[in-house]
Amino acid sequence: LLAARSPPCVTFPHHELDKFHDSNPPVIDATSEALDFKVFRLTSDDIASLKEKAKASAIGSHVSDARITGFNVVTALVWHCKALSWDNKESNLDRVSTLLYAVNIRPRLIPPLPMSYTGNAVLTAYARATCKEIDEAPFSRLVELVTEGAKRMTDEYARSAIDWGDIYQGFPNGEFLVSSWWKLGFDEVEYPWGRPKYSCPVVFQRKDIILFFPDIDDNNGVNVLVSLPSKEMSKFKTLFHKYLA
C-alpha cells in the first residue's frame, strides 16, 4: 500500500529530503557539542494569546481561522526563536531556515489506508523561509508557512515522496525537526495499575529536535523541550519571552 510506484515518478520538489552524499548531517544525528537543556512552558492562556496575535495580523492574508491551531502557532513561535538564535560564522538574514514536522498520511491517501493497517504512516512536512522573512514577517505569515507544510501533503505529494526515497535512498533534512507528543494521548493509556501520572521524553544529545509534550497542570498547555549550545539557548530564551510579552 505504501510501496513506490513502478516506475517511480517524482512530481514535486522535496526540500524536506536530501541525498546522503550531498547533504549536511541529518537532523537525527547526535552532536558532541555541550548542550543546555530547557523546558519552555506555554499555558493555555499563552496559546490563546498567540492565536489572537495570528488572527490580528492575518487581515488580508490567506491564513484562515481554521488553520490557526495550537500546534501551528506554537510551531511558528518556536521556528522564529530557533532560526534567529542560530550561531554560525555564516549566519545572516539571507540564510534559509527549514523546519520539519511529521504528518499522518493515513487520511490523505486515495483511497485512505484501511483501519486494519498497523504501524506508522507518517511523512515529513516542511516550512522554509529566509531568516529575514522570519524576523520581519507578521506572525500570521509564519503560521501560514507552517500550515502549508501539511496542506501540500496530498496523495500525489505523498506518492512522490515515497518514489523519491526509492530512487535516492535519502533522509529528512532541515535545520530542525518538531516532534509533537502533545496530543498523542499517553496520559489516557490504561496500565494494570492505572493511568500514568506524567509522560515526557528522555533528554538526549540532539540540538536539532524540539519536542512538544503535555503540561500535567494545564490540559490545553504544552511544554517545549529545547536543547542548544549555551549561547544559542540564551538567544532562544530572549526571543521566546520577547515574543510572548
UniProtKB/TrEMBL annotation:
Signal peptide: none
Superkingdom as given in the UniProt entry: Eukaryota
GO molecular function term, any single one: acyltransferase activity, transferring groups other than amino-acyl groups
InterPro entries: CAT-like_dom_sf, Plant_Fungal_Acyltransferase
Gene3D superfamilies, A to Z: Chloramphenicol acetyltransferase-like domain
PANTHER family: ACYLTRANSFERASE GLAUCE (PTHR31642:SF189), TRICHOTHECENE 3-O-ACETYLTRANSFERASE (PTHR31642)
Family: Belongs to the plant acyltransferase family.
Protein name per UniProt: Omega-hydroxypalmitate O-feruloyl transferase
